[in-house]
């Protein structure tokens, strides 16, 4: 039976799963720790994030809160419009959000609803590794806090490569020189101090572009820190692109010194704001969180929200894309206006109709097939709006097949329905998430077989 659990060790730690029905805060299995003052404190802290749109949390005001995807409105489910948790009195419930969030001395660990007994959330780790293309043979499962830190390591190569694709970050830096090749502003006081009696050199300051700066130094410190972790080398050598990115950063930061880490962190507390190197903003934030991961675990600023959160709908959709793409399905990018389907036969009619250049962006499509990814529970059937949406896509594409793919606790046979009117088939596919794996390697192998089974069912 799903439940909230809590332990009182300097912190008020709670554990719950995503898409959880309302449950009382004061009814955990380990209730001996619950006293009225603890419940009151927890409620007070959680009120700061409960029933509040994620977009209203103002991420810039809570720098220790990471939310993925970064672009909150990128996907149809619109994570920004949802809340992390709902709280009515002492009744707490959850939505599609997973991860870890804290306020003051209250910490909430939101696992996937497919977490195994003992709290091992293999499914969340598995999806993250697949989406961010990290190939680890196994993951250690000790404390929940160490698992949270794992999430940051999974994200680092993705954002490192994304930033390096824009080029190596460079900025103007001032250098003090003392030689005969004057190329800048003469520093009179330093020249008198260093060069009298005259030695044939001149003290001057030159300002020039440099790849060795506080941003690349921060990335270098993060790389060296990750190397010290049990499977850090595997992450940094995960693929050829990541290895090239690491090599490029190491080559650019010749002045790296481990003892400068605190100073470099201090120089990076102001976010990067550069129109050309925009991807470095996210990378800088990831690096700071990795190097200061204790801050994520134990928030130090009063009433500030901290943690790492993932939109389950976004993660599920991107996970499906890792294998549905191999059988020809397109995965449109709504935010980038790529891969959409025309609603009108004549392009000029799009603007004449409503000036918004209407395009349709199904989760997955290919000739004669539309698929909608649903992470939420489908125990009560498909919502009317979701059904109408897929039927609309099918009509505009003249697709004969449409359907929904969702994760489920146990094996589910595909269900098919005949549509009236123009005809066609509506399918519901469940991907079983295995619960009883003894370790992560076994879980991975089982899930790969279940993915193949799902692909075969779709192709039939």
- Please, how many domains? 3
Mean pLDDT across residues: 80
> Biggest sheet, open or closed, and with what strands and sense?
6 strands, mixed
- Give the helix tally: 14
Helix content range of the residues, please?
25-40%
* Structural class by sheet pairing and helices: alpha+beta
The beta-strand count equals 19
Strand content: 15-25%
- Give the overall shape: globular
Q: Which sequence of strands runs across the widest sheet?
A: 1-2-8-7-12-4
Q: What does the radius of gyration come to?
A: 26 Å
Roughly how many Å apart are the termini? 36 Å
Point out poorly predicted stretches.
5-10, 28-34, 72-77
**Oligomeric category:** single chain
Description:
By secondary structure, the protein is α+β, with helices and mostly antiparallel strands. It has three domains: 5-166 and 214-313, no CATH class; 171-210, no CATH class; 328-459, no CATH class. It has 14 helices and 19 strands. It has helices at 36-46, 122-131, 144-164, 188-195, 214-227, 232-236, 240-252, 261-267, 279-291, 293-297, 312-324, 347-354, 384-397, 440-459; strands at 5-8, 12-17, 23-24, 65-68, 85-88, 91-94, 97-103, 106-111, 171-179, 185-186, 202-210, 305-311, 341-342, 359-360, 364-366, 369-373, 401-408, 415-418, 425-432. The strands form five sheets. The protein has a six-stranded mixed beta sheet with strand order 1-2-8-7-12-4, sandwiched between helices. Strands 15-16-17-19-18 form a five-stranded mixed beta sheet, sandwiched between helices. It has a three-stranded antiparallel beta sheet with strand order 3-6-5, with no helix packed on it. It is globular, with a radius of gyration of 26 Å.
């Amino acid at each position: 039976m799903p439940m909230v659990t809590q332990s009182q060790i300097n912190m008020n730690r709670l554990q719950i799963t995503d898409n959880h029905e309302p449950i009382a805060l004061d009814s955990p299995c380990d209730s001996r720790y619950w006293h009225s003052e603890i419940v009151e404190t927890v409620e007070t802290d959680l009120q700061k994030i409960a029933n509040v749109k994620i977009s209203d949390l103002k991420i810039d005001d809570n720098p220790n809160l990471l939310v993925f995807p970064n672009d909150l409105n990128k996907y149809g489910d619109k994570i920004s419009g949802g809340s992390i948790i709902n709280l009515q009195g002492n009744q707490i419930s959850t939505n599609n959000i997973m991860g870890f969030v804290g306020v003051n001395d209250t910490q909430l660990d939101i696992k996937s609803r497919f977490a195994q007994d003992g709290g091992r959330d293999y499914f969340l780790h598995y999806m993250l590794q697949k989406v961010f293309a990290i190939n680890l043979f196994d993951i250690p499962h000790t404390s929940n806090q160490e698992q949270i830190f794992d999430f940051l390591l999974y994200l680092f190569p993705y954002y490192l490569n994304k930033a390096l694709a824009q080029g190596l970050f460079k900025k103007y830096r001032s250098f003090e020189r003392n030689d005969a090749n004057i190329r800048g502003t003469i520093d009179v006081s330093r020249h008198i101090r260093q060069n009298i009696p005259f030695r044939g050199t001149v003290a001057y300051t030159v300002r020039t572009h440099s790849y060795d700066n506080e941003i690349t130094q921060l990335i270098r410190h993060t790389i060296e820190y990750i190397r010290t972790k049990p499977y850090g080398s595997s992450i940094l050598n995960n693929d050829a692109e990541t290895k090239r990115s690491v090599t490029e950063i190491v080559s650019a930061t010749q002045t790296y010194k481990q003892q400068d880490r605190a100073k470099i962190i201090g120089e990076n507390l102001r976010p990067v704001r550069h129109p050309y190197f925009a991807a470095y903003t996210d990378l800088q934030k990831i690096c700071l969180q990795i190097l200061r991961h204790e801050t994520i675990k134990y928030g130090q600023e009063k009433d500030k929200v901290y943690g790492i959160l993932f939109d389950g709908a976004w993660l599920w959709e991107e996970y499906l894309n890792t294998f549905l793409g191999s059988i020809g399905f397109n995965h449109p990018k709504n935010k980038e206006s790529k891969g959409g389907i025309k609603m009108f036969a004549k392009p000029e009619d799009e603007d004449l109709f409503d000036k918004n250049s209407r395009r349709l962006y199904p989760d997955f499509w290919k000739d004669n097939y539309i698929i909608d990814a649903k992470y939420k529970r489908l125990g009560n059937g498909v919502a009317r709006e979701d059904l109408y949406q897929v039927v609309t896509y099918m009509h505009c594409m003249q697709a004969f097949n449409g359907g929904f793919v969702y994760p489920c606790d146990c094996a589910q046979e595909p269900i098919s329905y005949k549509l009236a009117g123009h005809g066609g088939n509506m399918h519901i596919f469940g991907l079983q998430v295995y619960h009883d794996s003894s370790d992560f390697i076994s879980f991975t192998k089982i899930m790969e077989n279940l993915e193949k089974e799902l692909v075969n069912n779709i192709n039939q």
